[in-house]
Amino acid sequence: MRTIVTGGAGFIGSHLVERLLALGHEVRVLDNLSTGQFANLAAVSGNSNLVFHQVDLVELESIQGAFKGVDAVFHLGALADIVPSIQSPLAYFHANVHGTGNVLEAARAANVSRLIYVASSSCYGIPDVYPTPESEPVRPQYPYALTKYLGEELVFHWGKVYGLPVVSLRLFNVYGPRARTSGTYGAVFGVFLAQKLAGKPFTVIGDGTQVRDFTYVSDVVEALILASRSEEAVGRVLNVGSGKTYSINQLVTLLDGEVTYIPRRPGEPDCTWADISKIRNTLGWRPQVLFEQGVAQMLANIEYWREAPVWDPESIRVASVDWFKYLGEKHG
To answer: Computed from CA positions of residues 86, 91, 92, 97, in that sequence, does the dihedral angle turn out positive or negative?
Structure first.
């Protein structure tokens, strides 16, 4: 196949690019490098089937040419992180909603045979049902979650009106080598591994008993590829998770380090847990990587986080001021 991966220099995108190339497909990466980096594609940089386009998805004219002759589009390009989305909601709207609209229009014009949208389980907010099925009401708690859901709505509208064959995968707590890290306090693995390298305590929110459906990146990549091949998946929303839960205390035990506890944050669920029966039945997909195996792989690649920010309780407090200001109980 000729494929496009938007956000292909990012965490999940770079793993997907590697897998597609290994399967013999042509891959065109579209990335503006605002959060992704060339280093994530170092292992495949010399592959003749890889073409990199440094473009911004919000500029339709700059991306249209790359879609010519493409069979499948994997749309991962987006802004992530909670606090920046609270501080700059319009930037997230432009990237995650306007950018998705442009990708859909370029894909429609090119008559692609499949578009796979990477959605976020954050759209469920604080669910009523665990494990959480795709039918659970959508209750986004912050602009990032909202804009990812609005992007999903656009995807299915284009599918309905224009006959574009689309699939949306709602990802739960993805982790693995090259997991995203940035100057904002966010993804737990990037925070903890940088702290471990610096010999600092792990900053655990609340009492650490909250649980997450940690899903290893290679399992997510396999789900994306299966979705690109399945006719039965077209027009569907599918959860992608491990189908199990693990507490933050379990994680820090595996990572082996000292712990300091910091205040709970409003709008965060005590539990994320995907009901994955639908994707099992639709794609025959099942997660393969046990949590202990995945954490071991993270530790084996820990040097990746050598340059990541090292957070402590005070810097986290300062970074989280807007989180508490806008998502605190007085607002909701």
So the answer is: positive
CA distance 103 to 164: 12
The tens digit of pLDDT for each residue in 235-294 reads 999 999 999 999 999 999 999 999 999 998 888 899 999 999 999 999 999 999 999 999
Distances (CA, A) of 315 to 47, 171, 269, 312: 41, 29, 23, 6
Report how far residue 105's alpha carbon sits from residue 112's, in angstroms, rounded to the nearest whole number: 11
Residue 280: inside a domain: no
Q: Is 100 helix (H, G, I), strand (E, B) or coil?
A: helix
Whether residues 82 and 162 share a domain: the answer is yes
* Residue 166, C-beta contacts closer than 8 angstroms, at least 6 positions apart: 114, 115, 116, 117, 155, 156, 158, 159, 234, 235
- Asked if 209 and 321 count as a contact pair (C-beta separation under 8 A), the reply is no
Instruction: Indicate if 144 belongs to the active site.
Output: yes
Q: Which of 92, 117, 142, 144 is catalytic?
A: 144
Whether residue 114 contacts residue 167, with contact meaning beta carbons closer than 8 Å, is answered with yes
Residue 196 sits in a domain of what CATH number? 3.90.25.10
**Sequence letter at residue 188:** V
> What CATH code is carried by the domain that includes residue 161?
3.40.50.720
CA dist 49 to 24, 44, 54, 75, 76, Å? Answer: 8, 9, 17, 19, 20
Asked whether residue 278 is domain-assigned, the answer is no
| Structure-block tokens of residue 49 | 């089937």
Q: Is 267 helix (H, G, I), strand (E, B) or coil?
A: coil
pLDDT for 159-198, tens place per residue?
Answer: 999 999 999 999 999 999 999 776 666 679 989 999 999 9
Query: What is the residue range of 40's domain?
Result: 2-172+216-240
Q: Can you read off the two tokens belonging to residue 259?
A: 């712990």
